[in-house]
Structures are given as C-alpha cells and as structure tokens.
Amino acid sequence: MICVILPGRGAFGFVYESALKQTRQAAKQSPIKAGLSPSSASATPPLRNVAVKMLQPIDPGPNAKETTLAVYRAAHSKWVRDPLQYACKAYCTARQELNILIHLRHPHIVPLVGICTNPLSIVLELAPMGALDQRLRHYRRSGDKLSSKCVQLVVLQIGRALEYLHQHHIIYRDLKSENVLAWRMPEPFSAATASDGEDLSATSVHVKLADYGISRPTLPTGAKGFGGTEGFMAPEIVRYNGEEEYTEKVDAFSFGMFIYELLTLRQPFAGFETVKELILEGGRPPLTYRDLIYPTYLLDLMVVCWSQHPRDRPSASQAVSIAAAPEFIHLGDVVSLADYGSCCAQAVVPGNKRVMQAIFLPPP
User: Fold this and answer.
1) What residue numbers bound the domain in which 33 lies?
2) 339 is catalytic
3) Domain count, the chain
4) pTM score, two decimals?
C-alpha cells in the first residue's frame, strides 16, 4: 500500500514509500534485516518499508501538494497523448536500470528489492534519511557545516561505490548529492559535528549511491552517449555532446563537483547562466573563505578531480587511497619554504590539545 510521497522523481512520476509484504520464507532467511527476531519471523509475514520508483504516472492523490499534482498532470497528459512512445520509454528505462542493478552487491550501492509490472516501477531499499541533498540543505538552513571527518566518510563511501562500479566496467555518469541516499548522518550542531568531527565514528555516517537510469557499461575503449546533469558533466561530454568516446574519468569530474557540494552546501555554478561555456573554458564554481577552511588535502582532491583533462584526474581507486590516508583531514595547509628564512610552525594535537612546535632553518 502506497502511503507517502518521498522527495525524488521517477522517470514519469515520483518515488513513494510503500510497505512490502514478505513471504514467510524470505522473512526466515533474513529476519534481522526485516527488523524482527528469528522466532517472530515464522509467525506472521512482516511488512518491510521500501522505496518504489514509478516509471509511469500515478495519481498522487487529492492531498498532494499543488506542485506535485502539476507534475503528475503534465506527465499524464504526455502518456495519454502518445501511450506507445512513453510506454516503450518506461520499459527501456526499467530494463536499463535493472540490467545494471541486478548484478551489483556493495554496501554503498542501493540494493534492488524487486520490480512491479503494474504499475511499472522499481522497488528499492528505503533510505531512512532520504536524499543527501536534502540533508545538505538542512545544514545550510541551520547555519552549520559538515565536519571534515563527516566529509571524509562520505567521500570514502561514495568513492568506494564508484571504484566498485568501475571495476565492473560501469560508468555512473550522474554523480551528485541528489543521487546519494543517507541511512545515517549527524544532525547539525550535534556532538558528532563538534571539534571538527574528531569524535565521529565510522558508523555515524552511512550513504549509498542510487539511480542508475543513465549509467552505462563501458568497453575497453570507453563509452559514448550524452547524459548527466549540467554543472556536473565533464568537459569531454559537453564538448562533443557525447558523440565521442570517453572513459570512467567523467565520473572523477563529477566526484570533484560532488565534493564541492559537501564543502559549500551549494550546487556548483548555482545562479550562473552559461555553465557549459564556463566548464569548456576551464571555469570552476566559486569558493568563499568559509569554504577554504577545510584541510588542504580535501581541497586538493576536489581540484584534481575536476581537472580539465581526463588524464590529470585520479581514478576512483586513487581517490579512495587519498581520502583514506591518515593525514587527509589533519593537514591544515602547505607552504613552500624556498623563499623564506627560518620560520616557526605550531600545531595543536586533537584530543589532549597539546601544542607542538618546530623551528625550520634555511639550508646552509
């Protein structure tokens, strides 16, 4: 029974929260995942909350918002006007996404639960905290920012998901916070975000990559096709409209823009009109002083990921190695001493607040 409209869109409608009635056999096989004790799983088939991504327009009901109803009416009118065309499009979308999802098993990729034929929809695991872009908006409204540790954990988890996809010769093509779902994230101004997140445990953050509608299997020579979101698409896709081959390095470019979202709590190029031209000319979204207080390695990873040329961008495996390094969130800044004489450096060790000092002398 469909009960709640979730933030998000399917190909022709919305993403709904629904209750899935499991069989006794499925409940016995995974009672803990269903939220039951093994003894109660054999009594009554449990209900499991899932997300249903609609691939055809379904009336959201009289209590829906006017904006929601307007989107439904527009999609429904297209479907009625040319049902064969849009039914074929919905079928191809379902087949494309299923072809990718059915082979994926990873802790940071949203798992497929099943498919419904009437109405045509894809059933996925439900994210308790919704899309990551909603969480970032919540932080921005509150006046807080993500701690360096929280950013590191999100970057690592999504980086590992990309690494897994690339190992299976799949290019994601649409990485952005809207397509990342959150299972666990600290609240703004919580204890977990204090002291720059030093007390944040690895289990406090859990995100997964979702929406494989425009993902593509890749050949050794690369892939073709125009797809992605403006501001996140790599220059090589924009320049040739997807007609020339490109590699998985297009995901690295989007990864840099995704890190920008985490640091600034804004979409890249928000308010700009000629985004494609800016990217092709080497332009990148603006950074404020508040954005630059993050550790230097974190900023460096963002910048190297959005490099203009694919060969200059790191692979997903390299990005994960960089983000997993102990110094990733502990090095504040780097300066060259080539033009300086002797200087003194001071650092505060987290935890015990012990001050460390070092004096650097010029070479003889």
Assistant:
1) 2-125
2) no
3) 2
4) 0.83
